[in-house]
């Protein structure tokens, strides 16, 4: 197979995954956007986390809320738990990376806050622990996963929302996560500022 054929396959897979997300998750994404807007209007904050590529997406999401997405507006309360390399490496060194986010949630999370967690497989131990502690703190979960949703699928409470991207390919899952994050940011701007 020529490399140009692989490129075409990648775009084809990406387009197909986007169509599946639009067809299967549009209502759930819109609902998640409403939940985020309600949370912000209630004076709550959004904590986000993920490892690897999902960490970059967590940082991207919080940056869009802290700075701006599509318009100038006041900063919104969002913290990426993936961004503090000193905290992450300290926790990982002294305990285990599995507690990298949960320990931060113990300190920063409050009842009714939102945890937006991202994992391509839904099996990351750091996300499993994060959800456990978030539930102990009476926080709501919005997860962006892929494949079959993994271990965290069994952890959800009725108020939690799962946005599981219908793909087995990590690249397509990350692309889907980014598109969903952009939709959530747009929903927040629209819900709060009517844009």
Automatic annotation (TrEMBL):
CDD domains: SIS_GmhA (cd05006). InterPro entries: GmhA/DiaA, SIS_dom, SIS_dom_sf, SIS_GmhA/DiaA_subfam. It holds the Pfam family SIS_2. SUPFAM superfamilies: SIS domain (SSF53697). GO terms for biological process: carbohydrate derivative metabolic process. Gene3D superfamilies: Glucose-6-phosphate isomerase like protein, domain 1 (3.40.50.10490). Keywords: Isomerase. The keyword Heme does not apply. It comes from the Bacteria. The keyword Chaperone does not apply. GO terms for molecular function: carbohydrate derivative binding; isomerase activity. Residues 36-195 form the SIS domain. PANTHER family: DNAA INITIATOR-ASSOCIATING PROTEIN DIAA, SEDOHEPTULOSE 7-PHOSPHATE ISOMERASE / DNAA INITIATOR-ASSOCIATING FACTOR FOR REPLICATION INITIATION. This is Phosphoheptose isomerase. It comes from Cysteiniphilum litorale.
């Amino acid at each position: 197979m020529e490399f140009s054929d692989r490129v075409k396959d990648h775009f084809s897979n990406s387009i197909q995954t986007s169509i599946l997300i639009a067809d299967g998750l549009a209502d759930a994404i819109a609902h998640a956007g409403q939940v985020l807007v309600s949370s912000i209007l209630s004076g709550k904050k959004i904590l986000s986390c993920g490892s690897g590529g999902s960490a970059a997406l967590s940082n991207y999401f919080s940056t869009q809320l802290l700075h701006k997405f599509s318009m100038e507006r006041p900063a919104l309360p969002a913290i990426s738990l993936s961004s503090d390399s000193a905290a992450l490496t300290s926790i990982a060194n002294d305990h285990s990376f599995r507690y990298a986010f949960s320990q931060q949630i113990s300190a920063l999370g409050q009842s009714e806050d939102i945890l937006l967690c991202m994992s391509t497989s839904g099996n990351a131990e750091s996300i499993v622990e994060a959800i456990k502690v978030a539930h102990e703190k009476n926080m709501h979960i919005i997860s962006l996963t892929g494949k079959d949703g993994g271990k965290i699928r069994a952890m959800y409470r009725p108020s939690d929302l799962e946005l599981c991207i219908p793909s087995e390919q990590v690249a397509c899952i990350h692309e889907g996560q980014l598109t969903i994050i952009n939709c959530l940011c747009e929903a927040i701007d629209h819900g709060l500022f009517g844009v």
